[in-house]
Amino acid sequence: MPVPASSSGQTWPIRQGREDVGRLEVLPEAAGLSADQRRLFAAFAEEAGLAFSNARLQAELAARAEALAADTAALAESRRRLVRVAYAERDLLSATIQRDVMVHLGGLEEEVRRIRRLLPEHPDDTAAGLERARAGVNTALDKLRTPR
User: Fold this and answer.
1) Which of 4, 25, 37, 49 is the most exposed place for a label (fewest CB within 10 A)?
2) Looking at 16-20, 65-69, 118-122, 130-134, which range is the least confident one?
3) Would you say residue 115 has pLDDT above 80?
4) Can you name the residues that pair with 6 across neighbouring β-strands?
5) DSSP letters of the chain?
6) Looking at residue 24, what is its pLDDT?
7) Taking 70 as the threshold, does the pLDDT of residue 5 lie above it?
8) Which residues of 103-129 are buried (b: 16+ CB within 10 A; e: fewer)?
9) How far apart are CA 47 and CA 14, in angstroms?
10) What average pLDDT is seen over the chain?
11) Beta-ladder partners of 15
12) How many angstroms separate the CA atoms of 62 and 42, rounded?
């Protein structure tokens, strides 16, 4: 529905739903427009509202896509940092095991073999060897439990 003609021409509101998003104005010879031309301008104004709305929605969608891409990049960088920290922790644990734990377990296998050979004939030596092996294992376990 056209807005009443002014001295400067004829104006049609461009709406999306109930919201005015613009206007179509024909200057200055609007008074000379035929009824068909006026209907054409009114239909054009109606369709322009939909086009403006689509353009706005497209711009909002592009902004959301850009924000999503930024969030995805931030998450990927966060994951990379977490992976680096996990690898560093693993390397630290491995170094701690090599430096503080393995020194107490290094000869354990040979000690157990020696104890097996002594077992039937030398029970006292066997008990002392088992005590040394137990102490070495307990020390190694304590080193694993102690935070560094």
Assistant:
1) 4
2) 118-122
3) no
4) 9
5) -PEEEETTEEEEEEEETTEEEEEEEE-S-GGG--HHHHHHHHHHHHHHHHHHHHHHHHHHHHHHHHHHHHHHHHHHHHHHHHHHHHHHHHHHHHHHIIIIIHHHHTTHHHHHHHHHHHTTT-HHHHHHHHHHHHHHHHHHHHHHHS--
6) 79
7) no
8) ebbeeeeebeeebeebeeeeeeebeeb
9) 8
10) 83
11) 20
12) 30
Question: Which tokens sit at 109?
Answer: 């296998």
Backbone angles phi, psi at 146, to 5 degrees: -80, 120
Question: 3-state DSSP: the chain helix, strand, coil percent, rounded to 5?
Answer: 75, 15, 15
Alpha-carbon gap, residue 51 to 9, rounded angstroms: 24
Q: How far apart are alpha carbons 43 and 5 in whole angstroms?
A: 17
Global confidence as pTM = 0.50
| Paired tokens of 33 | 């427009």
Q: Are 81 and 50 in contact (CB under 8 A)?
A: no
The residue length of the chain stands at: 148
